[in-house]
Write a structure and sequence with these properties.
heterodimer, A: about 350 residues, mainly alpha, MetI-like fold, about 0% strand, flat, B: about 260 residues, alpha/beta, Rossmann fold, six-stranded mixed β-sheet, four-stranded antiparallel β-sheet, about 30% helix, about 25% strand, globular
């Protein structure tokens, strides 16, 4: 009996000690390190002279020190900030790593030019693009979003309807399937030269290509989703008095939805590729065009700036898709978290 | 033959329908060969009767149920519900399958509401869904999704989904076959209580002789494929029945003999 109580007290005491210890060296420690790293970044901007002529070095340095101050404040008040504080604490290791990366980048480019200069612009020159070239960049962002959204929605809608039709009706499948097999696997970009001739505008041609790139995976996966619905579901619905329209709308489509989202995800990926190529070659707007334009002027900082924006947009689009899926498919367990 | 008079006069509330199976034969085409499954089955079930179908595995019991449900049409013969020929599925004849086959994307409530929704009467009849979920004791799980339910709970939802339509004939295809034995015994009692309360005609397919004897007031023994009716046995015992009842034990021995398993007794 007494041995039991002894081991009980040690077991109860140990985790409490561990918690306080981890608070000091763990979450606070990492937050502190992140703050210091960002302070170092700021000081590195201000301390050494630039090897080139950049106008935003000072603002970047001050901005980094402000960020360091925010991290410091956030670290010690995380317990009072609720979920935001928790999020901050969770991301502290990343802030250390990212701060170290930008410091190294700053030192290796603007201060000692270890990397060849025009090709590897320093952080302040990218900041300069965001402040000084903002209108043109924003125009490009909106043009890209407009083109991408239009093409994607058209392609996804047509793909979904086609997929449901051929999954449901053998007669439609008989006619559509060979066409799909012939045209679908062709990369949408291969249509580019023809599309820009035959369509009235480069914008409509690009929309068509994006829709094509989206439509194929959506069609195939919707189709396979509808075709693989267990017949037991249909039997159940039919004995309960379901008509064919109910079987399609309330049985086949919801059952196929997990497949449909895989198709939408794949279509999104391939449509990004088409978007950028179409903008580089035909459309005189958008981020792809901005990249092309920056290359023409050897404006490397602009290219990096545009790439970063593009990456954020693509990642944001996928996040949005996954959020939608998680909301619609709450009934599934163990779906991939993005 | 051990046939005891099946038409013993027991009166039932008039909610159930009469079911007549007249000279029904059925066959499947498998790789070009015709496989006969049912051979001239004749059976007349009075309104409100609880009839169990027993037979060797693969003899065509489930096929007979699919014909009753209207999911398939017989090659010859006819099935009638209250003198009206069965030509397709209808919510007055609902099937509960061995797998609960709940729709995983619908909550318990939405699964149960399926029949009323399919018939376009859900808006006016929402209270029926609530009532039947209450009846099977799952009120606190109405918003749960099927993957969160145990096997017994899922089968109760399937039962509720059938009962919400107020069926005249309840068709049960080994509904308790996959449950553990304790859940199974509990649900057998629930099934009898529901049947007594609602008065629908019940047609149950099972492998379990004891289950048939505890639940049904008439047991039909089928032969090997193609299935024919081998015996029609009345179980004239009041409910609730006791598993140790010597009368039932006697019948059990008789039925196992009919199924070619007398040596196991």
């Amino acid at each position: 009996m007494s041995t039991y109580s002894v081991s009980d007290t040690t077991a109860a005491a140990a985790p409490r000690a561990a918690v306080t210890f981890s608070n000091l060296s763990g979450s606070y420690g990492v937050g502190l390190a992140a703050s210091l790293v960002w302070l170092a970044f700021g000081l590195s901007c201000l301390y050494w002279p630039d090897v080139g002529d950049w106008s935003r070095t000072e603002s970047l340095g001050i901005g980094a020190i402000v960020i360091a101050a925010f991290i410091l404040f956030g670290t010690f008040s995380a317990d009072y900030l609720g979920s935001a504080g928790q999020a901050l604490r969770k991301r502290a290791p990343w802030m250390v790593a990212f701060g170290a990366f930008v410091t190294l980048w700053e030192v290796a480019t603007a201060k000692f030019a270890w990397l060849p200069l025009p090709f590897f612009p320093p952080p302040q020159s990218i900041l300069e693009v965001y402040t000084d070239d903002l209108p043109k960049l924003l125009d490009s962002v909106f043009a890209s979003i407009k083109l991408q959204l239009g093409g994607y929605i058209i392609g996804a809608t047509i793909g979904f309807i086609t997929g449901v039709s051929i999954g449901w009706s053998q007669k439609i499948g008989y006619w559509v399937h060979p066409v799909l097999r012939f045209i679908g696997p062709l990369p949408a970009t291969a249509w580019l030269p023809i599309a820009f001739f035959t369509f009235p505008s480069s914008w409509s041609a690009s929309t068509f290509l994006i829709a094509l790139a989206t439509g194929f995976p959506v069609t195939v996966l919707t189709w396979s989703g509808v075709a693989s619905v267990s017949t037991a579901y249909y039997d159940v619905a039919r004995t309960l008095g379901a008509k064919p329209s109910f079987l399609v709308l309330k049985v086949a489509i919801p059952a196929a939805l997990p497949h449909v989202f895989v198709g939408l995800f794949m279509g999104l990926g391939s449509s990004f590729a088409v978007l950028v190529v179409a903008e580089m070659i035909g459309v005189k707007a958008g981020l792809g065009w901005y990249l092309q334009w920056a290359q023409g002027w050897a404006a490397y900082a602009n290219m990096y700036a545009a790439l970063i924006v593009m990456s954020l947009l693509c990642s944001g689009a996928i996040t949005l898709l996954f959020r939608t899926r998680d909301r619609l498919l709450v009934w599934q367990k163990g779906v991939v978290k993005w | 033959m051990v046939v005891q008079s099946a038409a013993e006069a027991i009166t039932y509330p008039a909610v159930g329908a009469e079911l007549d199976i007249e000279g029904v034969s059925h066959a499947f085409d498998i790789d070009g060969a015709v496989l006969p499954v049912l051979d001239n089955v004749n059976l007349s079930i009075a309104p409100g009767e609880f009839v169990a179908l027993l037979g060797p595995s693969g003899c065509g019991k489930s096929t007979l149920l699919r014909l009753v449900a209207g999911l398939e049409k017989p090659r010859s013969g006819a099935l009638r519900e209250d003198e009206v020929r069965i030509s397709g599925p209808h919510p007055s004849r609902v099937v509960v399958f061995q797998d609960p086959t709940l729709f995983p994307w619908r909550s318990v409530w939405d699964n149960v509401a399926l029949g009323l929704e399919a018939q376009g009467i859900l808006k006016a009849q929402r209270h029926r869904v609530d009532a039947v979920i209450e009846l099977v004791g799952l009120s606190s799980f109405r918003n749960a999704y099927p993957h969160q339910l145990s096997g017994g709970m899922a089968q109760r939802v399937a039962l509720a989904r059938a009962l919400v339509n107020d069926p005249k004939i309840l068709v049960l295809d080994e509904p308790l076959g996959k449950l553990d034995s304790l859940t199974r015994i509990a649900m057998q009692a629930e099934l009898v209580a529901l049947w007594q309360r609602k008065g629908f005609t019940t047609l149950l397919v099972t492998h379990d002789v004891e289950e048939a004897l505890v639940l049904a007031n008439r047991v039909i023994v089928l032969s090997d494929r193609p299935a024919q009716i081998k015996a029609d046995i009345a179980v004239a015992r009041p409910y609730p029945r006791h598993r140790g009842d010597p009368y039932l034990a006697d019948l059990r021995k008789q039925i196992l003999g009919l199924l070619g398993l007398e040596a196991t007794w």
